[in-house]
């Protein structure tokens, strides 16, 4: 068994080698290239194991990967740092102007998508002769409905999206995962046998305490960090303060049973705007933002590689392959409805860039959070079905949608790019069109 240091060293070495090969040879977008190479390496090792059963390479690598608790690594490790790094770059003024849109997409949109996906998976599985309880179909809907902030922000780095549309995509991705984790908790409690106190009041308490409490906690810790940053001018200490802010806020949120993702996003937006403008010198800004950009790029690379390599340890049942093919179009349909319906309603009050619905639909990339939540499910007859469906949707959205999003943007959104409001301009009068 590998030690923790040996495991980290191996993972970082493979990530660096694959990143170099992708940069020099394959030239895919960095993180998608790592995922594809990790997946390719996994499939190659599986093929070698089937052709040459006497080899022990597959078993050794699988044993090493099984030492990594993917759920813990993502949800209680990487996610806090990745969300904070992404939130640092969010323009608060633009986010405030698009707050109604972001809020509805991150809440109502997630609910709509969850219900459509749950109903579709339950009906599709029944048609294929696969048994899955509707309660577990709801669990799958909750874990796959939200767009993944890590995957979306990574994809947006390589795509030129109109400003208002980029704000909608970024804001929704940063906030909807916190809502979705709460919804996942609720549906999982219902699927595993609700307790006597499980009811509307319990659900409302979870939403208010976890989501609302997480936002308040992020504001409080972010404000404390802001005051500490403003009191000194030493970039090394200020970088340490930002690290303490992320780890301390997320850990405290876990202890208080609040939403860690929402808390670090709120803290990150506060520091990235008011902190950068009023509490940091130019030199400190360069170091703080440079540090978090490096953290973001490194952890993103490791996470996407892990998603590809995780095929080695999941042990998919080939008989369930059809459920993955059902889940992909189902997720796209649900995403279209969860975007199209809110946009159609909000268009009476807010303006939208041309191509908003197709770009938000095709840009609804899922990633590590969905895989982590699926892997956290307790053992049950329905778990293998959910794992196959979740992994199929994640791979399709990252590889196919991620690689082709730029084409969708050019064809649907860029002709009217000049009409998108600038960062210091108010939204133009609502046109009623999406």
Automatic annotation (TrEMBL):
Cellular component aspect of the GO annotation: plasma membrane
Family annotation (PANTHER family): NA(+)_H(+) ANTIPORTER NHAS2 (PTHR10110:SF195), SODIUM/HYDROGEN EXCHANGER (PTHR10110)
Record has Mitochondrion as a keyword: no
Residue stretches making up the Cation/H+ exchanger transmembrane domain: 14-410
Biased composition (Pro residues): 423-434
The species this protein was found in: Tistrella mobilis (strain KA081020-065)
Family classification: Belongs to the monovalent cation:proton antiporter 1 (CPA1) transporter (TC 2.A.36) family.
Membrane topology: Multi-pass membrane protein
Protein known as: Sodium/hydrogen exchanger
GO biological process per UniProt: regulation of intracellular pH; sodium ion import across plasma membrane
Xref: InterPro entries: Cation/H_exchanger_CPA1, Cation/H_exchanger_TM
Gene Ontology molecular function terms on file: potassium:proton antiporter activity; sodium:proton antiporter activity
Chief subcellular location: membrane
Keywords: Antiport, Cell membrane, Ion transport, Membrane, Sodium, Sodium transport, Transmembrane, Transmembrane helix, Transport
Compartment annotation: Cell membrane
Record carries keyword NADP: no
Transmembrane segments: 32-52, 73-92, 98-118, 125-145, 203-226, 235-253, 259-277, 298-316, 322-347, 359-379, 385-405
Positions of the UniProt region annotated as Disordered: 415-434
A Pfam family it matches: Na_H_Exchanger
């Amino acid at each position: 068994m590998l030690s923790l240091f040996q495991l980290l060293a191996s993972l970082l070495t493979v990530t660096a080698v694959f990143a170099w090969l992708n940069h020099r040879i394959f030239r895919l977008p960095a993180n998608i290239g790592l995922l594809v190479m990790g997946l390719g390496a996994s499939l190659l090792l599986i093929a070698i194991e089937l052709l040459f059963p006497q080899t022990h390479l597959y078993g050794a690598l699988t044993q090493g990967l099984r030492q990594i608790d993917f759920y813990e690594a993502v949800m209680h490790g990487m996610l806090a740092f990745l969300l904070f790094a992404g939130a640092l770059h969010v323009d608060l003024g633009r986010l405030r102007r698009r707050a109604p849109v972001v809020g509805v997409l991150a809440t109502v949109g997630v609910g709509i998508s969850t219900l459509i996906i749950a109903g579709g998976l339950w009906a599709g599985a029944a048609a294929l002769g696969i048994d899955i309880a509707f309660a577990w179909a709801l669990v799958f809907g909750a874990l796959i409905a939200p767009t993944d902030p890590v995957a979306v922000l990574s994809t947006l780095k390589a795509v030129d999206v109109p400003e208002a549309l980029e704000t909608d995509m970024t804001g929704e991705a940063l906030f909807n995962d916190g809502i979705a984790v709460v919804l996942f908790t609720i549906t999982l409690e219902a699927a595993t046998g609700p307790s006597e106190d499980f009811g509307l009041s319990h659900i409302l308490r979870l939403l208010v305490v976890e989501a609302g409490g997480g936002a308040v906690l992020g504001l409080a810790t972010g404000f404390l960090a802001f005051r500490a940053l403003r009191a000194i001018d030493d970039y090394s200490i200020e970088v340490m303060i930002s690290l303490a802010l992320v780890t301390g806020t997320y850990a405290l949120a876990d202890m208080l049973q609040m939403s860690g993702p929402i808390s670090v996003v709120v803290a990150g937006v506060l520091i990235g705007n008011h902190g950068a403008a009023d509490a940091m010198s130019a030199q400190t800004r360069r170091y703080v933002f440079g540090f978090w950009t490096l953290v973001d790029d490194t952890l993103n690379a490791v996470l996407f590689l892990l998603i590809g390599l995780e095929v080695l340890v999941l042990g998919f049942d080939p008989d369930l392959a059809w459920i993955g093919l059902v889940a992909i179009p189902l997720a796209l349909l649900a995403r279209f409805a969860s975007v199209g319906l809110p946009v159609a309603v909000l268009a009476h009050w807010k303006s939208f860039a041309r191509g908003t619905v197709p770009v938000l639909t095709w840009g609804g990339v899922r990633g590590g959070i969905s895989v982590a939540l699926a892997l956290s499910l307790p053992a049950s007859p329905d778990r293998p079905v959910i794992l196959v469906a979740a992994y199929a949707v994640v791979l399709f959205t990252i590889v196919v949608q991620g690689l082709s999003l730029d084409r969708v943007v050019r064809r649907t959104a860029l002709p009217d790019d000049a009409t998108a409001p600038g960062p210091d301009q108010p939204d133009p009068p609502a046109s009623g069109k999406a």
